[in-house]
Amino acid sequence: MACVGPHPAVADVRRAVREALSDLRPEALVMAACSGGADSLALAAAVGFVAPRMGLRAGLLSVDHQLQPGSAERAQQVVAQAAHLDLDPAEVLTVTVGTEGGPEAAAREARYAALAAAAERLQAPAILLGHTRDDQAETVLLGLARGSGLRSLSGMAARAGLYRRPFLDLPRSTTVAACRALGLAPWDDPHNEDPRYTRVRVRRNVLPVLEEELGPGVAEALARTARMAREDADALDEWADSAYQHCALSDIGGAITLAVKELETLPDAVRRRVLRRAAIAAGAPPGALSATHVLAVDRLVTRWRGQKAVDLPGGLTATRRYGTLILAISPHA
Questions:
Q1: Ranges of CATH 3.30.465.60 domains, the chain
Q2: Which of 191, 207, 296, 333 is 20 to 30 Å apart from 168, CA to CA?
């Protein structure tokens, strides 16, 4: 009798996880972040199956954001499934979500902080996240709408520090099919249907219209755009890192001094990256340093008319003086 392999969707998610874990040393502990939804539940099942066969240990983390009634019980139910999926240890991480940056950003910040702390405590070198190609498409559209630049259009990275996203090349329909084939019952988070959240409106309203008007494959095309944008952004960042070393004249007392003549030879995209890096090195908070700030500093290089210093977040000023650009904390800050 012929040997029958797993369902195609199950094979796809397992293959993606196997590739994501291929560089880890034997006995390393990998943790699947699981909310109980189809994406993360398919991920947890794949990790529990694949990791032991690669000589790895595997566990599960579920974050309770405390944002809706019954969230603690739901998180415990997710963790209770870990034993059936061969995942141990399994923990609930309870977080308090703030308000800064809006509900989505605040929840994300609290979640990642808790996951990172757990990874350090458990000495886990990798946390796997269940973001799919559809999530990537939504992220690209949000970045496009905000005019956030190439780095934002590059979407989520397949690997970023602790975090690995094996499913970025798989559609959400694959994770749903994998759960069905494995007999798993995902939980549908009400927040995923709440139109108060921008991402939900993109998922429910914007992407379906694009698919209807432009034809199928929009999500796949957006995800492909993200990959290409990330490659370009990485290359530009690497160029900017090298250029910064050539332009930087000194770093005394926190002040950064750059050679204007060197800056003038750089393409706009590279020069502005150098200026952003210099401002952050001098003490500007990255989250508060906008493209408008960087462009104002850039004009000190490209459109110099003897203008006054440019004020930057964190009490910094950027001043051009005798062929140099000086970024430092203002004495009046």
A1: 253-329
A2: 191
Q: Is 39 annotated as a binding residue?
A: yes
pLDDT at 148: 65
Whether 229 and 155 have beta carbons less than 8 Å apart is answered as yes
8-226 has which CATH code? Answer: 3.40.50.620
Phi, psi of 221 (to 5 degrees): -65, -40
CATH code given to domain 253-329: 3.30.465.60
Determine whether the annotation assigns residue 35 to a binding site: yes
Q: Kindly state the tokens that stand for 312.
A: 């930057």
Q: Are 122 and 92 in contact (CB under 8 A)?
A: no
| Strand blocks (E) in the chain | 29-33, 57-64, 90-94, 126-128, 159-160, 163-164, 248-252, 255-259, 310-312, 316-321, 324-329
The H-or-E segment that residue 111 falls in is: helix 103-122
For residue 330, CA distances in Å to 140, 206, 286, 311 come to 37, 45, 18, 9
- DSSP letter at 206 equals I
Please check if 38 is assigned to a binding site: yes
Which residues does 68 contact at the CB level (< 8 Å), separation at least 6? 190, 191
Q: Report the run of H or E that residue 205 belongs to, with start and end.
A: none
Q: CA 156 to CA 151: how far, in whole Å?
A: 10
Distance of CA 8 to the CA centre of its chain: 28
For residue 242, say whether it is annotated as part of any ligand binding site.
Answer: no
H or E element at residue 120: helix 103-122
3-state secondary structure of 272: helix
Point out the residues of the chain with pLDDT beneath 70. 1-4, 101, 148, 251-253, 332-333
